[in-house]
């Protein structure tokens, strides 16, 4: 697993967006060989999306042959509700890029049969050959997508009850009123994420420092579901300095030294100096 540490949120956002750009360019997607990208919501990826939009506007990145799968969606929130993940994705990314709407996949939290909706989502991911790169964020309790503490680390897409901590954390989007926050969601499973050929997790802010420490300095644990990244063959966490506050100095120095060598080998000097 790689841990890439950048100064702050903006530097993390630029680094991840640039990484996505390079991966897509390298893959060279076509109509018959689309690039399948997994996407999160929340405040963590907003800066990444802004940069991706800039790359698109500068003519450096097209989404015509990209298929996306979002991680999760609230149950029972109207699709056009300002806080639905459908609305979030259109307002923060899709409306500014050239992705064909039929290439966008977001779970339908209003489906009549929610279990069937989840099963079909898994089948659709498999039908397009699996996810090439899954981007993710985490909650302060180390949950990935809506895989709350105690979720099976081999879970698949399913209906999930939200933890109280998540409801409280997300109340900021619902007039700070926890009664307005849906208490159920549809979410890809930890297993669904780990099946992606590559996973990249964004972790920023001191409030996520404990989760980062649990994720990388301790063993894989269902109480910190993002820790499943430890068994992924191509896992990367990109975090800011604030998120490293609970890590041992030795851990930080170790990963920084590895990245230094990595950047030298890849000749990534240009990327580093732009950040
Ligand atoms: N289901 C989402 C997660 O996918 C997201 O990672 C988390 C963190 O959000 P933020 O990035 O705003 O901290 O919020 C929600 O719980």
TrEMBL record:
Listed GO MF terms: glucosamine-6-phosphate deaminase activity; identical protein binding; isomerase activity
Annotated Gene3D superfamilies: 3.40.50.1360
Entry annotated with the keyword Transcription regulation: no
Keywords: Carbohydrate metabolism, Hydrolase, Isomerase
Superkingdom per UniProt: Eukaryota
Annotated Pfam families: Glucosamine_iso
Catalyzed reactions per annotation: alpha-D-glucosamine 6-phosphate + H2O = beta-D-fructose 6-phosphate + NH4(+)
UniProt GO BP: carbohydrate metabolic process; glucosamine catabolic process; N-acetylglucosamine catabolic process; N-acetylneuraminate catabolic process
GO cellular component: cytosol
This protein's record includes keyword Kinase: no
PROSITE patterns per record: GLC_GALNAC_ISOMERASE (PS01161)
Positions of the Glucosamine/galactosamine-6-phosphate isomerase domain: 8-230
Enzyme Commission no: 3.5.99.6
Entry function: Catalyzes the reversible conversion of alpha-D-glucosamine 6-phosphate (GlcN-6P) into beta-D-fructose 6-phosphate (Fru-6P) and ammonium ion, a regulatory reaction step in de novo uridine diphosphate-N-acetyl-alpha-D-glucosamine (UDP-GlcNAc) biosynthesis via hexosamine pathway.
HAMAP family: GlcN6P_deamin (MF_01241)
Family: Belongs to the glucosamine/galactosamine-6-phosphate isomerase family.
Record protein name field: Glucosamine-6-phosphate isomerase
């Amino acid at each position: 697993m790689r841990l890439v540490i950048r100064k702050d949120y903006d530097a993390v956002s630029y680094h991840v967006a640039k990484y996505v750009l390079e991966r897509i360019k390298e893959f060279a997607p076509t109509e018959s060989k689309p690039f399948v990208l997994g996407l999160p919501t929340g405040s963590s990826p907003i800066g990444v999306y802004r940069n991706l939009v800039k790359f698109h506007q500068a003519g450096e990145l097209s989404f015509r042959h990209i298929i996306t799968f979002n991680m999760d969606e609230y149950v029972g929130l109207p699709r056009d509700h300002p806080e639905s993940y459908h609305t979030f994705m259109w307002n923060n990314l899709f409306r500014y890029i050239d992705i064909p709407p039929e290439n966008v996949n977001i779970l339908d939290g209003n489906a009549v049969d929610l279990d069937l909706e989840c099963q079909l989502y898994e089948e659709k991911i498999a039908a397009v050959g699996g996810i090439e790169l899954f981007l993710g964020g985490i909650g302060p309790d180390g949950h990935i997508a809506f895989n709350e503490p105690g979720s099976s680390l081999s879970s698949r897409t399913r209906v999930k009850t939200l933890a109280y901590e998540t409801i409280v954390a997300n109340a900021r989007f619902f007039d700070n009123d926890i009664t307005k926050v849906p208490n159920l969601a549809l979410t890809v499973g930890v297993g669904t994420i780990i099946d992606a050929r590559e996973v990249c997790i964004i972790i920023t802010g001191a409030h996520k420092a404990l989760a980062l420490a649990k994720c990388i300095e301790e063993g894989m644990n269902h109480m910190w579901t993002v820790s499943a990244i430890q068994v992924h063959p191509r896992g990367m966490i990109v975090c800011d300095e604030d998120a490293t506050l609970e890590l041992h100095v030795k851990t930080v120095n170790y990963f920084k030294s590895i990245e230094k060598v990595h950047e030298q080998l890849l000749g990534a000097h240009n990327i580093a100096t732009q950040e």
